[in-house]
Amino acid sequence: xxxxxxxxxxxxxxxxxxVSSSAAELYCYSCDASQIRGVPDFVVxxxxxxxxxxxxxxAFDNDIPLTPRGAGTGLAGGAVPVEGGIVLDMSSxxxxxxxxxxxxxxFVECGVVQEKLNEALEPYGxxxxxxxxxxxxxxxxxxxxxxxSGMRSVKYxxxxxxxxxxxxxxxxxxxxxxxxxxxxxxVGYSLTDLFVGSEGTLGIITRAILKIKAxxxxxxxxxxxxxxxxxxxxxxxKVLSSGIVPxxxxxxxxxxxxxxxxxxxNISLPDADAILLFEVDGTENSVKEGIEMxxxxxxxxxxxIRAASDKKERDEIWAARRLVGAAVSxxxxxxxxVYVGEDVxxxxxxxxxxxNKVNEISKEYDLPIMTYGHIxxxxxxxxxxxxxxxxxxxxxxxxxxxxxxxxxxSVGGTVTAEHGVGSARSEYLGLELGKGLNVMILIKNALDPxxxxxxxxxxx
Amino acid sequence: xxxxxxxxxxxxxxxxxxVSSSAAELYCYSCDASQIRGVPDFVVxxxxxxxxxxxxxxAFDNDIPLTPRGAGTGLAGGAVPVEGGIVLDMSSxxxxxxxxxxxxxxFVECGVVQEKLNEALEPYGxxxxxxxxxxxxxxxxxxxxxxxSGMRSVKYxxxxxxxxxxxxxxxxxxxxxxxxxxxxxxVGYSLTDLFVGSEGTLGIITRAILKIKAxxxxxxxxxxxxxxxxxxxxxxxKVLSSGIVPxxxxxxxxxxxxxxxxxxxNISLPDADAILLFEVDGTENSVKEGIEMxxxxxxxxxxxIRAASDKKERDEIWAARRLVGAAVSxxxxxxxxVYVGEDVxxxxxxxxxxxNKVNEISKEYDLPIMTYGHIxxxxxxxxxxxxxxxxxxxxxxxxxxxxxxxxxxSVGGTVTAEHGVGSARSEYLGLELGKGLNVMILIKNALDPxxxxxxxxxxx
Lengths: 460, 460
Prior knowledge:
The structure is a homodimer. Chain A is α+β, with helices and mostly antiparallel strands. Chain A folds into four domains: 88 residues, Uridine Diphospho-n-acetylenolpyruvylglucosamine Reductase, domain 2 (2-Layer Sandwich), CATH 3.30.43; 123 residues, Uridine Diphospho-n-acetylenolpyruvylglucosamine Reductase, domain 3, CATH 3.30.465.10; 110 residues, Alpha-Beta Plaits, CATH 3.30.70.2190; 96 residues, Alpha-Beta Plaits. The first copy, chain A, is 36% helix and 20% strand. Chain A is built from 16 helices and 19 strands. In chain A, the strands form four sheets. In chain A, strands 12, 13, 14, 15, 16, 17, 18 and 19 form an eight-stranded antiparallel β-sheet that branches. A five-stranded antiparallel β-sheet of chain A has the order 5-6-10-8-9. In chain A, strands 1-2-4-3 form a four-stranded mixed β-sheet. In chain A, helix 13 packs antiparallel against helix 14.
């Protein structure tokens, strides 16, 4: 079929206004928040599952790549159409279809922005726990397709733990439903879990049934300073293996602390090699108990420990943590933060060693690495800034990222704990998964025999 | 290959003592705890993953059905070789390879009995939460393959939530590893979740990395009585939608209460149409708070509420709950408890209606139904007894089970919340899963193209 015929067909499915092939618009859809680029041939904004199904059928019959896109906040190129074709902008499907408090669930379209869901739930005293840094923008469909998480996952788990069921459009346009509103079932393979985290390579997620939780009554924060990141790593091992479950457990290293302070000198953070931020939520009594248990566990390792005395101080500490992304890129006006090699995860026990290794690699290549992240999950964000106009800087960055990735894998870790594989990290899948990658490819070929769904992603 | 050649090959892999084709031994492996029967041609007891791999390769090359078996405690025929071939008795692979408290995990062989793992963890103050009724006998491999759960899942989730990684032997003998010791990773499709609950139809689970939890310091029990099971169902909705998370939430109906009392007259249970048992665990303060919140939530619906005053009373109440299985079969000495139609689950909100429906069906067919189970998950065990020598009784039972299954599906529920599909419930998969069943079949064919892995199960 000619390109003009494809365009006409797409227009007849979604209406003229909801499809575009203008260069300016295509350019807007050629990137996400990573360095990956790829220009689509068409951008289509479906309004219903039925439209998505028809578009998929058209793509299937004409071997056109089909890349679903939420808000484009991804850090691995997952939503970038690296082989061209159709980008499906799902952001118009943004209805919260049902808030069902009796069953503790919501039923949503995939284009709902994460924060909008929590705004809708807040008056009822409930919330949807996954909290990626992009929660003000990202869509639930993107969150599910990437199995996103964030600061709270050390207690609340990842998005996967909240997906009870999905509506998915398969490569040939078939619409299936996985899971249900029943909290426990062992009927059939867990197709829900297969689609969660599959980054649009197996099907297009159009609707979801999601679990919600009651908002905890209280929360409190403890801030512990350490002489050397390794000590901080050891404190995390000690706290978690004591059976304490904080609702957040974050690390900021010396470089990040300095970046935050230079970004906003009013922020009061201790001068230390590393800071751990612990949050505990629950009832008033359990929060008090939890904070004291963490204080005890850290006491022999930390140089200083202080609990936030009130809500104001607690909010200030979290505001500092949230500044990290912006602060990193402000450290040197000539350099730009790039998201490469930034999301490794390691077993908790390996954290002290991994933090040391990152410092060694930084020194060896003379490239500052700012380490922060969800250390309670073993997830370290290693932030690096380069002059993006200098090829030499890119070469160095890629070498450093490669070393970080291989070091994480060598201690039983992962190249991406939460940001996704996309195109950015697919080269490591064989190394990390071994023969498991072959099983992935078997499944990919079975569900998408023509390879039209988000091609060039996840190594399949 | 001749049968005698297969036997010789198997002997050369595992040794003469670890393979059998004697009629007496084959008979022992022809059943599990369900009504399903099927006699194997060989029973093999491998001692290592390498042996499992070689056996799979032999089976693959010769198109021999291969049915893995843990302790044979399943209630759906999952471990019964309905098409003959080789039964793989995995119970010899029973080493706990590593208890890693720093990473809050254990690394085990699949033949470890669930209770043995908890006995090994108890001195360290940790436990593995899933707790099926068969925990004193069932193996971890069986538990994982069935995604088993039990009373604690209302708080702690199912086995799936504790499996971090698996070693799996595929149909052709290939050994793969899924997941890792890292708590969070988004690298690749979640193959771990695909194998969990796949009942041996996609691969043979040989080893597992499992999460463990700290044993809660306190636990307490509250017992609420209701005039009519529907009121009990409404109380469950009210408690859970208040955001309270009990560590168990069980129902016993009038028939079950009478059965328990006739089994052991010393047991003190209230005379009621239905009883709810709530357990709360955690710290001393949080347990007190939780019990009082449940008391408040139930107060307008229950005819009587009492908290266990001490550990002795608490243990007595749970002992009564544990007697259910034995008590049901003692109700009428001429009748036998059969596990058919016994494991539906429904959305929490549908519980009151479902409890009413079960009573109506019982009256319509004049077949007593004893209802108990994990009502906090929407999971109802509907226990029925028949004269197993009477064809008419079987016919009636099957009609009643069919009505219960279809009623559960019609309200968005499931035909099996935790016991498994096996051969017993595979006829309902199309009805419950719709086109999702086709996706299961695509995956099954991709991973097991010759269909040798546990054939005749799960509708694939």
